[in-house]
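sorry to bug you again but im stuck and you know this stuff better than me. below you get a single protein, a line of residues and a line of whole numbers that encode the local backbone shape. mainly i need to know what kind of three dimensional shape the backbone takes. anything you notice is useful, everything is just below:

***
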Amino acid sequence: MSALRFEISARCSVSRARVGRVTTVHGAFETPAFMPVGTQGTVKGLLPQMVAGTGSRIILGNTYHLMLRPGEELVARLGGLHSFMGWPGPILTDSGGYQAYSMSDLTKLTDDSVTFRSVVDGSMVELTPERAIAVQNKLGADIIMALDDCPPSVDPATLNQTRLRLKAQQSVRRRGYDHAKRLDEANERTIRWLERCKRAHARAEAQSLFGIVQGGTDLERRTWSAERVSGVELPGYAIGGVAVGEGFEEIVRVVEHTAKLLPEEKPRYLMGVGYERDIVAAVRAGVDMFDCVLPTRNGRNAFAFTRTGVVRLRNARYTDDAGPIEEGCDCFACAPGKHGWVFPGAMGDVNAPTGSKQPVGGTGDARLSAEPDSRGTGERRGDRVGHFSRAYLRHLFMAGEMLGPILVSLHNVRHFQGLMVDIRAAIRENGWSALGRQWPVAREALPASPEMAEG
């Protein structure tokens, strides 16, 4: 079997969206797919089975962090990243280049390598294309990324947000910065490094190398990069340097232009994106794979995603709110009973063994019973208490309890996996109008057309 197989099973008749299936050595996943980010070998706060329970089938690891700690040699000795982190399914690792540029106070970029100061011990580390591939070969992920040069997508001087401007300017220290020249330099370096990465790749039978397109928000430069990167025969291709300071309209413009330039028969991966509307717009442009830290990073900070927008759980308005994060959500935080949560002996046999699935009842029931409740609403007994309330979650965050970030992160990952399920259905059925009704938060990404005006 080849290291990666991509099969397209359905195409949308009103956009470039498609439904597919990627098969790797460690299993398969449907596309469009969202990959939770497990930066340091873990999706923060969540057990592997919790992540799988959200519908996630592939996760992402970060080469930069794993290279610095615990080191790729140790991971390899302990059986590779799948064994090390207890995730038997597909894994993707990025090259580490973006973090080398963005996280270090001291970065030196040359045609040969990027040299940076380690965030772990302050030592100087040199990352060449060959080293990036060697590290990923030892980590053993199913999909690995080429080392690329990721410049600021737009001229840092034009960014409105102070934080983003200062962050971008970390890589623009010299006087007389020429943004167009920087984009050309990055494009040329990226293709040279890609060719070196392919030559260095020692495990092509088990790991699939993806190349990355750069070019900032300049469409001509995106075309130049896409033509040359896709000219290198690879199992898949990625769009990099997006959603790093530019607005929604610019993201859509760049992705719509670039995606169609990449090979139709290969999976297309949009790196580091993003919000619901970004994903929907990119899917309609023909993108198949996504990753982002938003679900867990926001979850750790009491921001819960819902179909109508973000719920900020620290807000005092939720102090005595008995409702779930989102009505109708089937995640463990919103509907634990749907995940088989039973307290042994609750309102039933106190001698019931641990893990018993025996029917239980009463207002203390943490499991959904089959019988309608006394209100005659058709809801099953336990619906009223079968969730963690917004009030309780707010309490957890205000008290600094770790369960709050765990539950909201779990909800957020499930939120994005639910979006992908509905996106795949919309593609198969050309049901974008239904998707817009189900996901108001993503409506901005859906065009106002006769098809969209249905209903």
